[in-house]
Amino acid sequence: DSGVTQTPKHLITATGQRVTLRCSPRSGDLSVYWYQQSLDQGLQFLIQYYNGEERAKGNILERFSAQQFPDLHSELNLSSLELGDSALYFCASSLGLGRLVPGTGELFFGEGSRLTVL
Amino acid sequence: GIQVEQSPPDLILQEGANSTLRCNFSDSVNNLQWFHQNPWGQLINLFYIPSGTKQNGRLSATTVATERYSLLYISSSQTTDSGVYFCAVGTYKYIFGTGTRLKVLA
Question: From A4, A91, A101, B104, which residue has the greatest number of CB atoms within 10 Å?
Answer without folding.
Answer: A91
